[in-house]
Amino acid sequence: MTKILVRILFVALETIYTRLVSVVSISAHYCSRKELIVKSRIELHQELRQRILNLSGVTERQNAGIHEDAFFVAGKMFMHIHGHGHCDIRLSKGDQERVLAERKARAHRWAPQAGYVTFIVNNNEDLERAMDLIRIAHAHFAGKQGVPRTGAA
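and the corresponding structure tokens:
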């Protein structure tokens, strides 16, 4: 009986959450030159994954150890995602120092010595900034250090 009540409560809460996210996604927007629609965390996560996979030579391993989504180029993991939008990005030491000094990402909690930084994607603007960092990591591990970088990273 308790299991049934817990399931009913969970389904009810999940339904309420889904409705709230849907309402926010539909109604939370603002207009400028372009109309920006706020995406759900799941939509942002899927777009982030797709953009990473569109980089040349990238492969993905889902559920690779403690990482939900791990991305590789030239046989090396250059970033991974925990949950929806928690990106751990591996940079060269020089890029890591610059990115941290410019406060464009946070130091990784467990492996900063390996060049990792952490960036959380919460909205479309964060998605663009994350991709700038990810492109830097991709270029480093793909052996393309001369790749032009956008200024938003």
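(Above: one complete record from the training split.) Residues 2-27 form the longest helix (26 residues).
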